[in-house]
Amino acid sequence: MNPIAKKIATILTVTALGTAAMPVVAQQAHAATNVANIAASIAQLTNQQIEAAVKELNKLGIMNGYVDRSLGEYRQISRAELATLVYKVFDLENKAATVTTELTDVNPNAWYAPYATKLVGLGIMQVQDGAFNPQGKVSDAELSQVVSKALQRDIKSVQHWMSAFYAESSIATRGETAYLLQTARKAIPSEQAKLTSVRSLNAITLIVTFDKPLTAADEVFAKAQTDFVFSGGLTLTNMPRLKTGSIATYIVPTSVQKAGETYNLAYKGTAAGSFTGSGTKLNMTTASQVTNDTFELASLKASGVIDYGYIISAYSGGRGANAFVLNDREQANGQTYQIISSMQARQVIITPEGGEPIVAKYVPFTQSTDGKQEPKFRLPDGLTLTPGVKYTVSSDWANIASASFVAKSFDSLQVAGAQAISETSIEVTLTQDPGDELFSGRSITLTAPNGDVLTASYKYSSRKGATGVFDVTNNGKLIAGTTYAVTPVGDWATAAASSVTVTLK
Known about the structure:
Layout (H helix, E strand, L loop, with lengths): L2 H7 L1 E6 L17 E5 L8 H13 L19 H11 L23 H9 L18 H12 L3 H7 L12 H13 L8 E8 L2 E6 L5 H4 L1 H7 E3 L10 E2 L6 E5 L8 E6 L2 E7 L5 E8 L4 E5 L6 E3 L5 H4 L14 E2 L2 E2 L1 E3 L6 E6 L5 E5 L13 E3 L11 E5 L3 E5 L1 E3 L6 E8 L4 E6 L12 E5 L5 E6 L8 E6 L10 E6 L4 E3 L5 E3 L2
Parallel strand pairs: 10-20, 12-15, 22-28
Antiparallel strand pairs: 1-2, 3-4, 4-7, 5-8, 6-7, 8-9, 10-11, 11-18, 13-14, 16-17, 16-19, 17-18, 19-21, 22-23, 23-26, 24-25, 24-27, 25-26, 27-29
């Protein structure tokens, strides 16, 4: 039976309530509404869980009872009640509103007026033509949106916390709302977050759990580098990323660990635990060439390998149906997954048959940009793969099932045109969509008629189809009215026409 049907099946009665049934703080509210009195357990959420959550919020002074001395845990929640609870749970009193909206159906003296006004002003709750609809019921979908915005957490995590009762169009109860808010309270970031556990997942990845989520400032890579200090020369290679659906568990990428070595970790100057370095390498499927100087390593979700971009809060909104939640054993739907954490600063060795090994470095933002797990690696500047030569890729962090390929010649990309979008940015358009981040790490020169030369580099993740944005480097600026000749740096691309120019108007 689906959650909606379960909720319907538990409705015992619908009672017309007068002002006596409003919360104690709302005795002066004039509007009486019809509310469903739901008394049986809902989906997998038990009566005990519901009642415990309501009592805890009541104890904290967040959720008030009714004049009949009930807490109304099985009553459908109104928008006025939700606004009040969210305001108190997330301590929004001192948050500055971003918009000013007159609520046409809210009496300024109503018990819920300041809460409704603040949540609308912060963009957490919505109005229609100025009407807040205070006695309107709250669907599960609206509840998840409101909590997601108030907590500033991805909606997929919030809906995961609601999974015991979530049904998009079903109406939420006070008890269900209390249960969700109790979970969300635990997920409020804290500057005083303490590290509670650390374990190695694979040769380049740790799973680190805190008692509270980190603040955005503490997640920034430069700050995290100083906060996470490892013994044994191990280093953080990119910022920690919060797992979707977790309260405060992070995927933390490191330099390559030594299998079996004991590492100590200090966080913000305090000893935070130890872990044993993992010898588990990531299972990559194939190595293949994508341009004259770039190749990629592929892995398959079907084989139990997933890029971290699909399971972290920061990216879940942009990954659509591909985003999902892993439990604390890295499992989903009975499948255990290896996690490819950030490839930042990662490298591999590529060796031509009969030749010397070459270090190839990861091309930023290419590990899973086209819906596939295919991190790309590029030879040092000036080197290219020689057509007809067999190359073999090896790594200290990955096992590659099919590690060899025979290089072939690739046609350069063709630049069809360019357009200045500001004095520091240019849109470059190719003759056709490359279908991948082949702009990454590339540059162009902009030559003025007087011989002055500017360099512009690709802005990572800016590509839309065949067009990518290039930003002028070294504080350079285009001069209005000057026509610049556009030339790709290196042989990654050529101009499709005899010349490609750009003029800032």
